[in-house]
Write a structure and sequence with these properties.
This protein is mainly alpha-helical. It is built from three helices and no strands.
Length: 76
Amino acid sequence: MSADSKLLLPGRTQSAEEIRRELEQARAQIQSSVAALREEVSVATEWRGWYRRDPLLWVGAAFAVGLYLGIRSSNR
């Protein structure tokens, strides 16, 4: 529950409209959070961004893998 939600006092009941309104607010918050999370995951898992940030690392890694595979296949 959010920090601004009301505490129910003994003997006090919420109307159906108040409950619906709170549910709609909670749904909207959840939808907003899910959309933000999807965007963060999308950015974090995009390999092109990783390559743009440090292309020499990736070129070096590709060279190392190619060298390893080349040496391995020539030993057979």
